[in-house]
Amino acid sequence: MSKVIIIGAGGVANVVAKKCAQNDSVFTDVLIATRTVSKADKIVAEIKQHMPDSRATFSTATVDADNVPELVKLINDFRPVMVINVALPYQDLTIMDACLETGVHYLDTANYEPKDVAKFEYSWQWAYQDRFKEKGLMALLGCGFDPGATQAFTAFLAKHHFTEIHELDIVDCNNGDHGKAFATNFNPEINIREITANGRYWENGQWVETQPLEISQDIYYPKVATRKSFVLYHEELESIVKHFPTIKRARFWMTFGENYIKHLNVLEGIGMTSIEPIDFRGQKIAPIEFLKAVLPAPESLAENYAGQTCIGVQAKGPGKDGQPNVHFVYNVKDHAECYREVQAQGVSYTTGVPAMIGAMLMLNGTWMQPGVWNVEQLDPDPFIDAMNTWGLPVDELAGIELVK
Ligand code: NDP
């Protein structure tokens, strides 16, 4: 019933497009628009090859999503109901501007980050609240897995298991092996910027800053492994502590192997992760952009990826009966299974499926309402039901404290 534009044609866009192709009673007409159109063409060719029964129609176009007039023309020519932005966080504001100008709804999976400052926060996008409301349009921010499903898990814990959440730990384990010496699972520039930045967590009403990867502990990830995990700052912490003010401490943990950290330390030590442009043969180039060009593309990791991801949220606080409670909600996903289904690795899969689900819940009216929204502000139940239907089964573990 709905026309949508997907912007971007990377690892995540590939999954969103293929999940739209599966969900063809909702997504009937999809345009994939991106910078390098051959990548969008490849996705469409794979849909035709692997999903010949899909009734959804796919087409492709070139767009520079940094350019608002180009975006406006693209949207006006295709006339979608919404835009699913799975390009890079740098493009969030230009795409939101174009959506406002053309009167279409908006969804993304990562909050805005300026290209020249390694800093991400919701303030820039929250500032669009009044404009989206006035136009009767919805913008759904950060609807991937983390951010995204982790906020739905938080809202689910608050709704079904706690009278108040006091401590929240989001844990993200990739226990997969892609066989490469060093590679990032999603856009290298965004990924490395996130990890090399100082850590930060919320405690007693304020942010506590840490050195990069300063705090760690071994965490047991159910059905997967016990893995050393590090405190990072992650964007959903900002909106979660705003929308759940009873939270006294909120942290985000991610696993990294020794080999990964060793490579990252060397790359950082020699300046290869810097975002400061240098002169190279008469050209200005940011070392991290060059690094991205030599690292394997995230989508190229998919074919030989083995192992699982496990991402979940542990909450502590008084339960529904007023007694101290601890509860964990999580998903485990197998990389090879993702490849068989949509020719993607697990990190792209776990991001792309929630984006498709968020778009579906907007298009079918379940979540649709004017304004700028974070996932935890919306009813988690239909989202979690859809995760179970669309390939991300949700599990729960009661009464066991996995994160100390
Ligand atoms: P990729 O780098 O694989 O893909 C990004 C795509 O965006 C590429 O096709 C790229 O084009 C395109 N693009 C970049 N700049 C522009 C531009 N100016 N105009 C048009 N297209 C552009 O990234 P991923 O697919 O791995 O990630 C996509 C998004 O998902 C990112 O924002 C990332 O932060 C987010 N993400 C969110 C997660 C979550 O759980 N919430 C987890 C993982 C990722 P080209 O091919 O020419 O480079």
Automatic annotation (TrEMBL):
UniProt-listed SUPFAM superfamilies: NAD(P)-binding Rossmann-fold domains (SSF51735)
UniProt domain Saccharopine dehydrogenase NADP binding: residue ranges: 4-140
Record domain Saccharopine dehydrogenase-like C-terminal: where: 144-391
Gene3D superfamilies: Dihydrodipicolinate Reductase, domain 2, NAD(P)-binding Rossmann-like Domain
A Pfam family matched in the record: Sacchrp_dh_NADP
Protein name from the UniProt record: Saccharopine dehydrogenase family protein
Organism: Deinococcus rufus
Lineage: Bacteria, Thermotogati, Deinococcota, Deinococci, Deinococcales
